[in-house]
Amino acid sequence: MVKAWCDALVHVFYPSLCFGCNNELIQGDQFLCLQCQTELGRTQFEGIRNNPVEKLFWGRADIQFAASTYYYIDKTPLQQIIHQIKYREEKELGIHMGELMGIYGSSLFNAFKTDLCIPMPLHPKKEYKRGYNQATLLCEGMYKQTGIPYNEKALVRNENTRTQTKKTRIERWENVASVFDVNEPLIIKDRHVVLVDDVITTGASTEACVHTLMQHGAKTVGVYSLAFTL
Ligand SMILES: [Zn+2]
Fold it and tell me: Which of 17, 76, 216, 228 could cross-link with 68 by S-S, CB 3.0 to 4.6 Å?
């Protein structure tokens, strides 16, 4: 009774705001108001073979599956959410979105015997500046829902990534392919890995990561992201 009263009082003075639209949240809602929750564009790709994310990698990488939880569309709550996770240190929000990924992705992970999640590595300087990798937050949320462990140290992005402009397509590919490396091969070896990212757009970095993981003995690699750019 006292706790409920205190909570109500705290809510009056420090109302929680929706991360999607900034409106005040009603009690019971966490992170997002009902309106924004319904405006998140679910892809349902988890249950669709040859979905657009998988097609993106056709002829490019040997993936076990690929899917995204939501469509990335400009000026929607999801764009706000990703911005808050990446640039506003809203780590709890990142973990929450990871939990949703865990809920929607679990049947896929079960079907493909996923036993390790690997967050897409950030450039070391970027991670140092930001202090965290947003993909690791998503992995943490997924772990809370599915119990699938994650490792953010095994796959790394090398320090000196040269600029991509003024290169041929092949030079660009070679450049991207040499960007990633596996630090701890024993963690990767014979595992059914899922590579986790916030947004997949061209898939170039993802493709390079898949190659690096396979070269270092991963049994299979699947790809799962919070959002997919149409
Ligand atoms: Zn909202």
Answer: 228
